[in-house]
Structures are given as C-alpha cells and as structure tokens.
C-alpha cells in the first residue's frame, strides 16, 4: 500500500507545493515518512491523504471506452446468437454448474446492461450505478464460461470492481456537471494505491511465473522468434538467440522490473517507453483484444496525479471547453483525511485496501487449496498471471463411448456438442463434458453411456503424451475441486532433456520429412492410422521397449531402443509399451502426395515462366494451355480441365493476392481494418435491436425475422471477404 504514496505530493494544491518544505531522503524518494507506517492512525491518514483526481478521471474514461469496444469483440456481442442459440444441444463449462445462460434475447439484454454500464463509466454518468451494471453482468458472463478465461479478462473485472468503490467521477465526468459539489474534488490516495498495486502485481507476478525453467530455457514461446516483428533483431542474432534472449529473456526482465521502474521518477520515462513498445508488439503478436491498450492506459497512473492538468494546459483556449480541466486546483472532499480527523469510513477504506492487496498477492499461489483444478499447470488459467508461460499442441484426441446396457462401443468426433477446445487440457472441464455427453447420447439410443478420453498433448515442446488416463470412465470418475485429480497422468518431466535432442534430429531432416515425438506409459498402447498420403512412415524407438502390432497383417514385432520399423500406409497399427519405464519413440514420415504435388507445381511454374519470357518453343498440350491464358485473365477464374493445373493456377492467384496485400499502403490497410470492424460492430448492434424488439413486442413472423437476420449478416463486398478468408488459410501468412 505504501508504495503508492510517493505520488500523493502531486495531489496537493499549487499553493501547498509552493511552501518551502524540508523533506527527508525517504520522503523525497517514496513520498511518505517512516512515521506514516509506525501506527494505525498514521497509516489511515496516509491512505486517505488528499490527492488530485485528474489522473484517475482520465483512466476511468479510457477504461470505459476500451470496455465499450471490448464488449462488441472479445465479450462476443457480435456473435452472441451463435454462442447462445436457443434449443441448440451445447455442452457448457460454467464455474458453478447451476449457472446457465438465459434465453438468447435475454442474453442480449444482459449485454445491453453491460454496454450501458461501460458507457456510463466512460462518461462518468451515474457513475456508481454504471459500475454496478457493468461488473454484475461482466462477472456473470465471465463465470458462465471457463473456456474463455484468460488473465486480462479477469483483470478487467477486477478493475471494474475497484472503480465502483473509488471516486472516479470527480474529474471530467457528466456527474461533475450534474453535481457541482463533487466536481474537481480530491480523492483519497488509496484510489491510486489499489490500481497501481494491481498493475504492479500483474507485471511482477507474471515475471515470477516466468522464472519457470521452460521459460528461462526458451521453450515456452520459441515460435514467436519467427514473427516479422523480430526481424530487426535477426539482423544481428540467429533466430535461436532471438528466441532465448529477446523473446524469453526480454519478457522476463520487463515483467520483473516494469512495476519498479514505473514507480520512480528517474526511471519512469524509460519504463513507459519500453512497456509501450512491449504492449504494441503484443497487439500484433497475439489476438488478445483490448488488453495491450488497457495496459497502455494504466501506465500514466504511475505519473504524478496532476499530469492531465499540465498536459491539457498546452492546448488552445478555444478547446478547453470540451477538454479536461487544466487550471483550477482540486477542492476538498469528505473522502479524504484533513488535519488528522478520521471517520469510520476512512478506516474501512484502509482496511479494505490492505485486505484486497493481500488477497491479490495470495490468489496466484492458492492452488494448494483448489487442487482439483490443477493439471500439468496449476489452477484454472486466468487468475495466476502466468501469461504465455505454457504452449501446447495436441496430436491425437479420441473419445470412446460404451453403451452401458448392450456393451456396444463407438467413437465421437472430438468437440461434438461444444464450441471450445479448452476442455482437452482441464480435468474439471473434461468431467463437465463427459457428464453433458452422458445426457445427450441417450437421445441417440445409447443407454447409460461410459465415456473415455484419450488425449495426447505436448507442453512446451516436450514429447506428445497422454494427459488423462484413457482407461477411466470420466462419467463416473471422482472429481473434487479440493482434491487432486486421480485420473490425471503425470507430466514426464524426467524426459525434458530430450528436447535439445529433438532440435538436432529435426535439423537433420529435409523440408519434406515430418517427425512426431511420442512418450507413453507402461501397460498402455497407442492405436494409430497412417493415412495413404503418408508414405515411408517408420517408428524409431528412443527409450524403453515397445511391441508394434500391424492389425490387418496380424503381426506383432518387438522393437528395442535404437531400432526402427516401417508401418504400412492406409492401415491401423498399435504400439504397446512393454517396458517397466515409459517408452519414447518417434514417427518419421513423408507426405508423398504433397511432395509429388510440389514437384508438379515446380514444373508448371517453369513452363509458365518460359511462356512469359517467350522462350517456350514447344507447342503446349491442351491441358497446359490455361497457363498461357492465366496472365490475360488476371483476377478471374481460368477454365482448366487438369486438376493439377487448376490447383496451381488457384495457388498462383493466392500468392499474387498475398503480395498485393503485403505491399499495400498504410491507408489501404487502415481502410481494410475499419471496414472489418464496422461490419462486426454493425452486426452486434442490429442483432441487439432485433432482440430488444422481440422482448418488447414479441417475435415477428418467421419470414420477417429471417430477412432481419440476413440484413444484419450483410458483410463487406464479396471479393474482399473471400480474399481475407482465403489468405488466412495460406501457410506462413497468419500475420495478415
């Protein structure tokens, strides 16, 4: 709490600052005296010290604006009907099983209340009510779906809760115009204490979490080094060192130091520059909505609270009517302590501040209580500030059901009846999913179903391995939020050193050869099907002993470490781990179909280049003549009978589109971005209007409702939309 007090001096009036004061070294550095911490009355007076409301008012406005935008995007207003469509058989994952979504039109009303609350926060209009409207609906939606949890969504809810208790409407607010008695009045220092400490915790504990060995050794986010944003670093460093030193080392140092560097006057300008650069990079690296901009909005909170007055005083006088106040000094407020006169409210505010900060420091390490939510990583992702510490890839997911009465066995498509993939990594969600499936499957004549999950995951570039026991019927399996999950398989951390060997093996392969590293437990087996496209597939054993069963040929072959066996394409095989220790092996394969296709593409490209250069002397056969016509019909389809030629021409058109978009100017890119956001917000607004009309006067005839929804679904011109979607599918162009 005390760390925030140093800026309180900026909350004093100009007259107070003009008085000659003799300050000790501690007071000059931190803004408070040692005596302020030596007794409870002194601490209460410190936390309720009068402070300028300007910086808090600007932050309130920016936060409300960002939440207004966030509601239409990451909160999902623009596609709410897809998520909560009435009557759709959907398995949901609320924090508490009794929480269920309201009917669709009422869910739109919930979002309207949340939107109006965020708008009210931004304007400072009926401020307390607006905060209550925002956080009540926000936390309801947050708790309704664990699959959407992340750290920044949790942070938004915390900040909204804090603002409800603060005097955020004392500066640049509609409430200040309605009620002159609160306009430009001072706020207690604890308002800044909470927000600054919250942001300090976000940075610092995120840094503590990054002391994890996987992050320090560069395995968590190694793929980021290949992003174009890191190209300047790759001029002087190899990509491996960019990953280790810049991505991982830089992220660790910034998170650990940002909170401290923002605190002190001497280092704050440098800290603001680096954290701003960091968050701008994150806005391009990740799809994390408003989070980078919300963190940018928090940085000025660490400056002197009167910075808006000094900043806006440089604007022309004609603009100051609409700009925040720049000249008058803040007025006294009953929320603050003057002349050591303290009320019960001041003491409650101090108690709340201390308890809240302790609770926020404790929660990221509270996983020893909620042990049922622990998997390979601790707790539900969202409140531990372990941002980007763990990356996962899923190689194989199989859902098996068994009819409890007939014994019939069948398989389900992974993710059936769900709209998310997060359930694959969390035992609590898997339990909810299995329970939901057991309720839906009887509709398809499957009685008393047993559900088994076989999920293979690699975390931070380790072996692919099972995360849950595939022999356990999850429907009847025990699960408690306060007891360890008994059907969670342990992460084979003893095999982590193999990761350096993986890089050596992958580096020795050509571009057409793929490899997958597998680890399995004694007594279990992997059943796998090799596609006909994957020729020359072989299994190489690295550790332990395995038996490979070729199902159709009824062969059973024992394979020792250092040995390999070729498995047939277009057929099933099983790999049994027969050693007493986990087995490790790797699949090496070539996609022969893709390799042949690339070879044909190379030949067609050479022919097309010769045609363009006028060096092609041989007459073209009919199936290759579309190559000559492609340049004459640029931007339109060319009728090609040969499927390889047709696919080649389609690929060439895509590459041209990619090049065109990459070379587009800033104005064109901004226009594309604005058009896309316009249609997103437009759909959310129109669907909300339809829902409010339905609640007010009832449903219209089906034909009218169909026309209204079709109008809301109208998108940007067909060519541009399809182009965007096609480009997303192009490998290597995800940054577009």
Any overview of this molecule?
One of its GO terms (cellular component) is endoplasmic reticulum membrane. It is found in: Endoplasmic reticulum membrane. Its main location: endoplasmic reticulum. InterPro entries: HTTM-like, HTTM_dom, RmlC_Cupin_sf, VKG_COase, VKGC_lumenal_dom. By secondary structure, the chain is α+β, with helices and mostly antiparallel strands. Helix content is 45%, strand content 12%. It has helices at 14-18, 25-30, 40-47, 54-72, 80-83, 104-123, 127-144, 151-165, 174-178, 190-209, 213-216, 231-234, 239-263, 268-285, 291-298, 307-312, 344-362, 427-440, 498-507, 592-613, 626-629, 643-662, 666-697, 702-712, 718-729, and strands spanning 50-51, 187-188, 392-402, 409-412, 450-459, 465-466, 513-520, 525-530, 534-543, 546-550, 555-559, 564-567, 571-577, 583-591. The strands form four sheets. Strands 4-3-5-6 form a four-stranded antiparallel sheet. The chain has a four-stranded antiparallel sheet with strand order 7-14-9-12. A four-stranded antiparallel sheet has the order 8-13-10-11, with no helix packed on it. α13 (239-263) crosses α14. The model is unreliable at 1-6, 8-20 and 718-736 (pLDDT under 50).
Describe the secondary-structure layout.
Blueprint lengths: L13 H5 L6 H6 L9 H8 L2 E2 L2 H19 L7 H4 L20 H20 L3 H18 L6 H15 L8 H5 L8 E2 L1 H20 L3 H4 L14 H4 L4 H25 L4 H18 L5 H8 L8 H6 L31 H19 L29 E11 L6 E4 L14 H14 L9 E10 L5 E2 L31 H10 L5 E8 L4 E6 L3 E10 L2 E5 L4 E5 L4 E4 L3 E7 L5 E9 H22 L12 H4 L13 H20 L3 H32 L4 H11 L5 H12 L7
Antiparallel strand pairs: 1-2, 3-4, 3-5, 5-6, 7-14, 8-13, 9-12, 9-14, 10-11, 10-13
Helix pairs in contact: 3-17, 4-6, 4-15, 6-7, 6-23, 7-8, 8-10, 10-13, 10-17, 13-14, 14-15, 23-24
